[in-house]
Design brief:
The chain is built from eight helices and 14 strands. With 312 residues, the chain is α/β, with parallel strands linked by helices. It binds ribose-5-phosphate (R5P).
Length: 312
Amino acid sequence: MDKIAVFSGNAHPELAKDICKYLKVKLSDIFVGRFSEGEIRVKINENVRGKDVFVIQPTCPLVNDNLMELLIMIDALKRASAYRITAVIPYFGYARQDRKDQPRVPITAKLVANLLTTAGANRILTMDLHAGQIQGFFDIPLDHLFAVGVLIDYFLKLNLKDLVVISPDVGGIKMARAYAKRLSATLAILDKRRISPEKAEVMHILGEVEGKNVIVVDDLIATGGSLIEAVQTLKKAGAKSIRAAITHGVLSGEAIGLIDKCEDLEELLITDSIPLSNHKKHLRLKVISVAELLGEAIKRIYNEESVSSLFD
Ligand code: R5P
């Protein structure tokens, strides 16, 4: 892999190192710091001419800093004559702003796509986008990975009977169906209404959960409001045990405290698409790494091999 170069910004160097370990390459040398007034300062410390470059940077909190770092790194790599630049964005921030759901609001996910392309990204590699249609916001190739293959192994080992996979809203049905199929489980859907950015309310359960072991699956947990509401509703409806598998642990505000207090939730599986090292010791939280999945996808992109066959 003499033409590959893997760089990381400050968002998640731990994941970048794990990916490099899988690829058996060293993390390339870049300085990403700040000028005294706060502007981002980038300097690539090695030759990247003709290199197939991968920049690993989830746009997780601090979202704007991480996004800006990514854009500036891409600009620097383009001007340094990299052959191809792939932005590896394990968690794509702003993805929930993907449509005009009220008058006079932006479509920020589309703006971010435009910014990445304008900066000079040639490809995007990402995982469990909030909405698959965001792929269409890009006019460059985008590979979309799914964490289901990594998270499912844990549940398969538990060998739970009478299993129901729960989609916490209608938007998540496709993802829930993928879990249900692999776990040979049935599917139930929560009819969720969002009252405010922090509060969600479940109106109905579509499907049978009484006396069942249930797994709530979702693309992300931010405030934790959706998950806690789902757990309370499922408990009231007579679920025997409640677990959750959520790809991206944004865990903003009081989320960690809420999860700690939520005794009806047996465990929450989360990937390391976002740094979680501060939370690893939390009760109920299990972090599963996606470094190998991302590393394998990078290897296949570099070798011009199929990425979709990763999902077979
Ligand atoms: C919503 O459509 C998403 O899939 C998540 O359920 C939601 O964004 C989670 O946010 P929070 O944890 O703040 O309820």
